Amino acid sequence: MVNLLSLSDLSLDEIDGILNRAQQILDMKERGWFAPKQTLVANLFFEPSTRTRFSFETAEKRLGFHVLNFSSQASSTQKGESLYDTVRTMQAIGAQAVVVRHRREGYYRELMRGIGIPVLNAGDGAGDHPTQALLDLLTLRQEFLLFKGLTVAIIGDLRYSRVARSDANVLSRLGCRVLLSGPEAWKNDSLPGDYVTVDEAVRAADAVIMLRIQHERHEQAMKMTKEAYHCRYGLTRERAAVMHPGSIIMHPGPINRGVELDGDLVESGRSRYFKQIGNGVAVRMASLEWALRIKKEAEENDRVAEKW
Ligand code: CP
């Protein structure tokens, strides 16, 4: 049995042999004779996630990539390592892209200098959730073909929801009418759209996007009970009954049934909740392909420029 437990167990010849082989591997890599066969992507999630994390991982595997899955609890961030140094470490190990979710809004700004691989934002605090917005767009396009002229209602915790921000901005750019509704304390004046009551929003919308209450980002505990919230701002069965024919219900997940949305509506004919989740895999495959293609093109341009 051969183990590598302590260098004291190895002869100096054995140590020399391992160092020589490691250097040989690096030299061959340098000359392009030992190019890694598969793309390596690291998923760094510093906040809980089910949909985004597993659909990115599924997307990476379907593209034939190797995946480095990172658990923040079991990583050296627990010993004080910064996000920058963690990502830089992944790059040094050989990752060709990183997927990052972090509680800090705009965390990626500190990575823009020094990190030479694409960063795909899997959600930054109350900032943005770009791949969620892309999968929401795909779901809407499958349903309605065109964005221009659609009325989309976004209802709930508008202030703390990164999905609300990403969706409202891109839907507005695409020519949708965005209706916003929710508790006064969670209004967000930076979002494009018109504030209306929940009943008005539900009645007018082609698509109703219900948002989870982002308790983890609130400075104060919610004063209302869940039942009271559901009654005042949730999509109840009574409210859904006045939705016009062909209109759909969406939710980024995770759902708290009976709070933002009646549990039965999740399984109803209008719901596209599970379709959204399925679309997430394709959208993340396409996003990874896009980012890696742009990086490759930039590297090729740099090589041509160097020759000149
Ligand atoms: N929609 C979304 O971001 O879900 P997760 O938090 O489970 O990834």
Task: Note down, in words, how this protein is organized.
With 308 residues, the protein is of the alpha/beta class. The chain has 2 domains: 7-128 and 280-307, Rossmann fold, CATH 3.40.50; 130-276, Rossmann fold, CATH 3.40.50.1370. The chain contains 10 helices and 9 strands. It has helices at 12-30, 51-62, 83-93, 130-144, 162-173, 198-204, 226-233, 237-240, 263-266, 273-307; strands at 40-45, 66-71, 97-102, 119-124, 151-155, 177-181, 194-195, 207-210, 248-250. The protein has a 5-stranded parallel beta sheet with strand order 7-6-5-8-9, sandwiched between helices. Helix 5 (162-173) links the parallel strand 5 and strand 6 (177-181). Helix 4 crosses helix 5 (162-173) and helix 4 packs across helix 10. The longest helix is centred in the last third of the chain and has 35 residues, at 273-307. It starts with 11 loop residues before the first helix and ends with a helix. The structure holds phosphoric acid mono(formamide)ester. The site of phosphoric acid mono(formamide)ester has 11 residues, from helix 2.
